[in-house]
Specification:
With 746 residues, the chain is an alpha/beta fold. It has 25 helices and twelve strands. An eight-stranded mixed β-sheet has the order 7-6-5-8-9-11-10-12, sandwiched between helices. Strands 1-2-3-4 form a four-stranded antiparallel β-sheet, covered by helices on one side. A hairpin with a 2-residue loop joins strand 1 and strand 2. Helix 1 runs antiparallel to helix 4 and helix 2 runs antiparallel to helix 12. The N terminus is likely disordered.
Length: 746
């Protein structure tokens, strides 16, 4: 071969070889990040939106990813050509599961997600996900063999660019342009292309590896080094999820916002593992400053500038991820230990995800994992002394170092105490400037010395917001957390007893007037008597008689129960047990106890529960299942509306709450009404002043297959208006839906 290829051709062949390996690793990573949201989209109508379902799904993905990395690590025990033969065999066998999709399996109504979800996903996509997940470490090792021992780590940067492309492509291109069937065929075609790429890479492998992976010659990493790898991977992974939770809980609940933290997390790998080191080194040097200053700012928050606060949180995530992933890169082993290194990284990433997504919602009543992971990042991030004078102080062994640490603790304690005791004072909460200056001055002097730096960072997190969160946690019943978010109960002063408010993140989830029994029975906010659902509830006795059958999807504080009349039969559908406890069991809200004691509450995903209900079993169904401004798409598809129509009587009313700060849901409901043969009207309720019932602006759509039912509502209030169909808009189905054309302001 050397005789055939001239010296001038060798650089060209080397570039071609590198391009082929880069294309292979890009394709594999792209497919890996495309399959997860695609399969979630396929599974949502069948499995529902319960957290146990998606927690089980996440564990399946993490387990398959770890298994793929372990398989790649094991494969290093055999010679390169044998590796290629084995892996191509695995890819071909997994290809028997094409086209990708969920197998036809009817889950029982009482199916346990912890058992059935892994079984369903494992049988449906397990072999394909396992085979593709091994690509990143395996192709890097093959590149090292094919290139005569070249550095393979830069290919990991390309791998994460592919992951980023898959992440962005799904919500922006694939989902808006293709139905589920088309998405499945696209992914399946990409998989076949990947097999061809892998085959092409296999032809470049030597019979004997340039770097002997079978008998590694470099020193094996010790336990301490492996634990350090795991910790450096764990913190950015957990912080990525914690940032998403923190932003959507305490700043702004905006659709597709979750894409940005995950995208920045993936891009941080590309920066940290790139051949060109200047950006990674620069960001790593300034990361300790960013953590100290931005960590305090984000804990304090800027309530009137939510997008500014979100931007600060995202910058902080990116800086921490780049710094810690750069530390990983600096501690990478020789190429003969590559797969073990990536296996440890994968384990760390999985542990970070488990901590932030599964453990934290159970252990904490607020997003405490966010500041804890910021602290962990401060403990792990590489640091350099900024000033020579302080370097001598912190490296010294005399009393001066201990005195300096003691002085820092005293100053921080005094400033925090003054801030709490006198909010309007010099260091008070209303005057952020001076205490921020104190933190910045001490912190910059401490950078490079790990213990003093951690003391200052802890003080900043406590001072600028941590103590307020601790106060709420100490107050019994003030806050509770579930896998659906953080619920905070607030008592607001006012005339005649004030009000009690339930907040779900940044969104008011319910409000009850306090004081007299009459005030406590009064429906408020989106459910006031003048709202669309209020008018429908008041009209129910006239439309359906004294024994009307009422269903409500979404319990909230139980406000709608105060429209109940003797003889009516009510049932609620609620997916979150924490909401049931707040509305029924704690006594904090008394709508249910005063208006509808011992209500029937069906737990679980409403669409799945309604699918098991008898036909013609409800006269009125109110759909109010949205958390903050997020939209459960599977409740708004043509098939979902068909389920509602089956459960409702022919002249029954379906009320859909479409108030949303970011998404215009009117075209979705209008399209479903047209395709399902519903007559529909919308009431945009806009109370002119703050009424006694604390009514909020709200948008409700009423639908019925009997035009007379809608006519009855319009007779009572002429503001009920026909829905407007949007030209060219494609209605949502279980096979196709996208929010992109519905985003307000775009």
């Amino acid at each position: 071969m050397a005789d055939i290829i001239g010296a001038d051709d060798r650089p060209l062949m080397a570039r071609w070889c590198r391009t082929m390996f880069v294309a292979t690793i890009l394709t594999g990573s792209f497919l890996l990040f495309l399959v997860q949201p695609m399969v979630a989209r396929m599974a949502l109508p069948r499995l529902g939106g319960a957290p146990a379902v998606w927690n089980s799904a996440m564990l399946v993905y993490q387990a398959l990813l770890l298994a793929g990395y372990a398989y790649a690590h094991w494969l290093g025990r055999v010679r390169p050509r044998a590796q290629a033969a084995i892996h191509l065999g695995v890819l071909i066998v997994a290809g028997l599961w094409l086209p990708i999709g969920l197998i036809a399996m009817d889950l029982p109504a009482d199916a346990l997600p912890a058992l059935w979800v892994p079984w369903l996903l494992g049988l449906s996509i397990g072999p394909l996900f396992f085979a593709v997940s091994a690509q990143a470490p395996l192709i890097q090792r093959w590149f090292s063999d094919a290139s005569g021992g070249g550095d393979p780590y830069a290919l990991y940067a390309a791998s994460n660019l592919g992951s980023f492309a898959g992440l962005i492509a799904y919500p922006l291109l694939v989902e808006p342009l293709m139905a589920i069937r088309g998405q499945s065929l696209l992914w399946s075609g990409g998989y076949l292309l990947l097999v061809l790429f892998v085959l092409a890479c296999a032809t470049r492998l030597p019979k004997i590896a340039a770097v002997d992976h079978v008998a590694a010659t470099s020193a094996p990493p010790g336990t301490r080094r492996i634990v350090h790898w795991i910790a450096l991977a764990l913190v950015p992974s957990g912080l990525m999820l914690a940032t998403s939770t923190y932003i959507t809980t305490d700043i702004v609940a905006m659709p597709l916002l979750w894409v940005i933290p995950l995208g920045l997390y993936l891009l941080s790998f590309s920066v940290a593992f790139a051949n060109d080191r200047w950006l990674a080194d620069l960001l790593t040097r300034i990361a300790p400053i960013t953590i100290l200053l931005f960590g305090g700012i984000i804990m304090g928050g800027v309530n009137d500038r939510p997008f500014f606060s979100a931007g600060i949180a995202l910058i902080l995530l990116f800086m921490i991820s780049v710094a810690l992933h750069t530390a990983l890169y600096r501690k990478r082993p020789a190429p003969d230990r590559l797969t073990g290194f990536y296996l440890a990284m994968s384990a760390g990433g999985a542990l970070g995800g488990v901590f932030a997504a599964l453990v934290a919602p159970v252990v904490f009543d607020w997003t405490y994992e966010y500041p804890l992971l910021i602290l962990a990042a401060g403990a792990l991030v590489p640091q350099m002394y900024l000033f020579v004078q302080f370097r001598a102080l912190w490296l010294g062994r005399g009393h001066a170092k201990l005195i300096a640490i003691g002085a820092i603790i005293v100053v921080l304690a005094v400033v925090i105490g003054l801030r709490i005791a006198d909010p309007g004072g010099v260091f008070g909460e209303r005057r952020q400037g001076l205490d921020f200056l104190v933190i910045a001055t001490i912190g910059l002097a401490a950078i490079g010395a790990r213990l003093p730096y951690m003391i200052v960072l802890t003080g900043a997190l406590v001072m600028f917001g941590g103590y307020r969160s601790l106060e709420l946690s100490i107050d019994p019943g003030a806050r509770v957390r579930s896998y659906f978010g953080v619920y905070t109960v607030r008592n607001l002063p006012g005339p005649n007893g004030g009000v009690r408010e339930l907040d779900h993140g940044t969104t008011v989830h319910g409000l009850q007037l306090r004081g007299s029994a009459q005030r406590e029975r009064m429906p408020t906010t989106y459910y006031a008597a003048g709202s669309g659902v209020g008018q429908a509830m008041l009209a129910a006795p006239a439309l359906y008689g004294a024994t009307a059958r009422i269903g409500v999807v979404g319990l909230g504080t139980g406000t709608l129960s105060c429209y109940a009349r003797p003889g009516q039969h009510w049932r609620f559908y609620e997916i979150d047990p924490a909401v049931v406890r707040i509305a029924r069991d704690t006594g904090q809200f008394t709508y249910l106890s005063r208006c509808l004691p011992n209500p029937e509450i069906r737990m679980g995903d409403a669409r799945i529960a309604l699918a098991h209900d008898a036909s013609n079993s409800l006269d009125l169904l109110a759909l109010d299942a949205f958390s903050s401004d997020s939209v459960p798409m599977h409740l708004m598809t043509r098939e979902a509306f068909a389920t509602y129509g089956r459960v409702l009587a022919h002249d029954g009313l379906l009320l859909v709450h479409i108030s949303n700060r970011f998404i215009d849901l009117e075209p979705v409901v209008a399209a479903a009404a047209r395709e399902g043969g519903w007559t529909a009207a919308e009431l945009k309720y806009r109370p002119s002043t703050l009424l006694a019932d604390r009514a909020s602006q709200s948008d409700w759509v009423a639908l019925s297959r009997d035009p007379q039912s809608i006519a009855a509502l319009r007779t009572h209030d002429p503001d009920w208006a026909p829905l407007t169909l949007r030209p060219g808009f494609t209605g949502w189905t279980d096979d196709y839906s996208t929010i992109l054309p519905l985003l307000k302001g775009f």
